[in-house]
Amino acid sequence: MSNPSTGDSSGDSIENLSQENRHFPPSPAFAAQANAKSDLYAHAEKDRLAFWEEQARELTWDKSWETVLEWNSPYAKWFVGGKINASVNALDRHVAAGRGDRVAFHFEGEPGDTRTITYAQMLADVSKAAHALTQIGIKAGDRVAIYMPMIPEAAVAMLACARIGAVHSVVFGGFSADALLSRIQDADAKLVITADGGFRKGAAFALKPAVDEALKGKHNVEKVLVVKRTGQETAWNSDRDIWWHELVDSQSSEHTPEFFDSEHPLFILYTSGTTAKPKGIFHTTGGYLTQAAYTHRVVFDIKPEKDVYWCTADVGWITGHSYVVYGPLINGATQVMYEGTPDTPHKGRMFEIVAKYGVTILYTAPTLIRTWMKWGDEFPKAHKLSSLRLLGSVGEPINPEAWMWYREVIGANNCPIVDTWWQTETGAIMISPLPGVTSTKPGSAMKAIPGISAVVVDDNANPVPNGHGGFLILDKPWPSMLRGVWGEDERYKETYWSRFKGIYFAGDGAKLDDEGAIWLMGRVDDVMNVSGHRISTTEVESALVSHEAVAEAAVVGAADEMTGQGIVAFVILRGGIPHAGGEELVKELRAHVTKEIGAIARPRQIMVVAELPKTRSGKIMRRLLKDVAENRAVGDATTLADPNVMKLISEGLNSSKDED
Ligand code: WTA
Question: Could you confirm whether the keyword Metal-binding appears in this record (predicted)?
Fold first, then answer.
C-alpha cells in the first residue's frame, strides 16, 4: 500500500483512501494447468442460466430438472423438479466409479492420533449412520442438531442426515448450553448428535454436559446420540442417551438412498448474531451443492487425484459445510481434517501437518494468518512447506501486508492466493480471483466469479464509478443463495431485501479501485464518521498492519466532541521485529497512517494490546472495543471466543491519547 488516492471520493457512502499498485499474475505453468481459464467469464456471461445448468450437470441427479430458475424476488427455486441426494454425490458416485480406495480424510487428532478414511469407508460409515437415524425414528424433513468436535463423525453425521433427507443444524462445539438450547428450540430439533468431548489446547474438554444442561429447557428432543471421543466420565440418561458405537457400528453398511426434491431443505446454520437473536439461515439441496462443487473446482483448482486439500474451518461454520463437507467430497478430493488448536503442542503444529501430509492447497482465515505473523516467522520456517501450490483466505478482509506475508512466508512466492468473499447466506464463494487467470492485488477479492453478479452502489442503488466506495449488493439470484431465515419470513425480507428494495444487500461496504477491482471494507455498521468523512475500519487497519511492527489491528469510531467520531485503534505487535516502544511507537504509527492514507484517518488514540476480542469464528468484535473507547461498561460479550480478553484490554490500557 502507498500513496493516498488522488481521486476525490469525499461524500461517498464510504471513502476510498488507500491505493495498491502491486500485481501478481499466475505463473504461466499454473495458468496452463488451471481448471478455469479466462474464457469462463464470457462463457457464463453469454447465458447465465445455461452456464449454471452446465455446472449442475457435473453432479449426479436421479431426475433432471424441468426449469433452471424460478425467481419471485426474494424467493428463488433452482433446478426445479430435479431429484438429488447430497450424500450420493459426496460418496456413492466415487465408489461406483472405482475411486473407493481414495483417501477422503487424513484425520489428525490434537493428541496426535490419526485415522485415514477412504471414500469407501466414508460411504460405509454414512450408510450405517443413516440406518441408525431411521431406527431412532428420524424421517425426511426432521431437524437434527449436531454439536461435535472436529472429528470425522461430524461429517458422517451431516451426510447421514442428508442421506435420509433430515435437515442438519450444526452448532459449533464451542458454544454454550444456552446457545445450543436456543438453536434446538428455534429449529425444533428431534435429535442431538454429540460426543463425550474433544481435545483442545492439550486437554480433553467435555461436550455432553452442555447438551444435558441445554436439555433441561423446553424442547422436543427425543434422543441424544453420543460419539465416544475422549473416553471421559459421562453422565448418562439411559431413556434418552445412546452411544453412537453401540447403535451405529452394528448396522448394515449398505444403504439404498432416496432422492429428494432439488429444493428440499439440506441444512440450517445459525449466524451468531452479536446482538440480536441468531438467524437460522437455511439452504436447500440442488443449487447449494452445484455452487459449492463448482466454486471448489474453479477457485481451488482442485485436482482430486493429486491434491491434498486442507480447509482449516470447523464444521460449525459455513466454510466447514461448503468447503470441508460438500464441495470437496462432491469433487472427490483428499483432505486433511485437524481437531485441535494451532498452538498445541507448539506454534508450528499446522506447518508440521502441512509437511506431514504434503498439503497442496491451504484455505484459512486472516485471523490465523495474522496470528502466525504475531508469533514470528521462525515457526513456518522450521517446516517444509514446498508442497503448497495454492493458498486461500476467507472470513474477513485480509490486510495487504498480511496477504504479502502469507504469499512470501507460507507460499514461498510460489502460490496464487485466492481471497474469497462470501457469507453463510450466500452458501458458497461469490467474489474471488480465479487462480490461473487473475492478476491478483494484495488485499482485494478482485471480482465476482463467472456466473455471479456483484455490484458496488451508492445510497440510491446506483453503481459507483471506479475509484469510489459504497455498498456491496448481489443483483442476480445465485444457486446457493439462502432460501430464507428459518421460521422468520419477515426477518428475511427485512434484513436482506429492504435496504435496496428487492435487491440483496450483503451488509458489507466495498470500493472499486481505479481498475474496477473490488475491495471489501468491513460491515457498514462499523463505518466511522470523522468530520463528515465516512471511513472504513478496514483501510485504517490495513494501514496500521502495513507498519512492520504491527501484526493485527482493530479500529473503531468513538464519540468525539470535535469531529463526531474519532478513530481509536487497538494494535497487536509482531514477534521478532525490533521496534520503538511506548509513546515513540504510537507516534510512529500515527505518522505512518497519515503517510499511507492521509491525515483524516490518523487515529486519535492507539492502544497496544496483547489480544483482540473475537468471535468463535475469528471475527473482531468492534462493538466491544467501542465500549472501551467510549469508556462504557463492556456490553454483551457472550459470543466472545475468550471471555477474559475484554478484561485484559480494559486493565492494560496505558493509553496514549493524541495531544496534537
Ligand atoms: C466477511 C464466512 C472480506 C464479510 C464465509 C461477510 C469477508 C462476512 C471475506 C460473512 C473476505 C467473509 N473479505 N470480508 N474474503 N469473507 N467476509 O457468514 O463481512 O461467517 O459479510 O461467512 O464475513 O461471514 P460468514
Answer: yes
> Which positions make up the binding site?
200-203, 319, 395-397, 419-424, 508, 523, 531, 534, 545, 547, 550
pTM score > 0.90 for this model? yes
Q: Cβ atoms within 10 A of the Cβ of 58, count? A: 14
Measure 395 CA to ligand 1 centroid, in angstroms. 4
Pocket of ligand 1 (CB under 6 A): 271, 317-319, 394-397, 419-424, 445, 506-508, 520, 523, 617
CA nearest to 546, candidates 393, 399, 375, 376:
399
Helices 48-56/286-299 angle, 10° precision? 90
DSSP labels, 33-84:
H-SS-THHHHHHHHTHHHHHHHHHTTS--SB--SEEEEEETTEEEEEET-EE
CB atoms within 10 A of CB 188: 14
Establish if 63 belongs to a structural domain: no
Q: Which residues are annotated as a binding site for CoA?
A: 200-203, 319, 531
Spatial separation of the C-alpha atoms in residues 16 and 420, rounded to whole Å? 21
190-222 per-position pLDDT tens digit: 999 999 999 999 999 999 999 999 999 999 999
| Contacts by residues 214-219 (CB-CB < 8 Å, ≥ 24 positions apart) | 214/177, 214/178, 214/180, 214/181, 214/184, 215/181, 215/184, 215/240, 217/181, 217/185, 218/185, 219/181, 219/184, 219/185, 219/189
Nearest Cα neighbor of 108 from 411, 333, 357 is 357
In a domain, 48, yes or no: no
Terminus-to-terminus CA distance in the chain, angstroms? 26
Q: Is residue 619 part of a domain?
A: yes
Please give the residue range of the domain that contains residue 551: 527-653
Alpha-carbon gap, residue 553 to 609, rounded angstroms? 9
Rounded Cα gap, residues 78 and 286, in angstroms: 7
Tell me what pLDDT residue 273 has.
Answer: 57
Q: Is residue 59 part of a domain?
A: no
pLDDT band, very low/low/confident/very high, at 82 (cuts 50, 70, 90): very high
DSSP letter, residue 443: T
DSSP 232-251: ------TTTEEEHHHHHTTS
d(CA 634, CA 650): 9
CATH of the domain at 531: 3.30.300.30
Tell the residue number behind the cell numbers 453503481, with chain if given. Answer: 463
Domain count for the chain = 1
Name the one residue in this structure whose C-alpha cell is 505512518.
Answer: 592
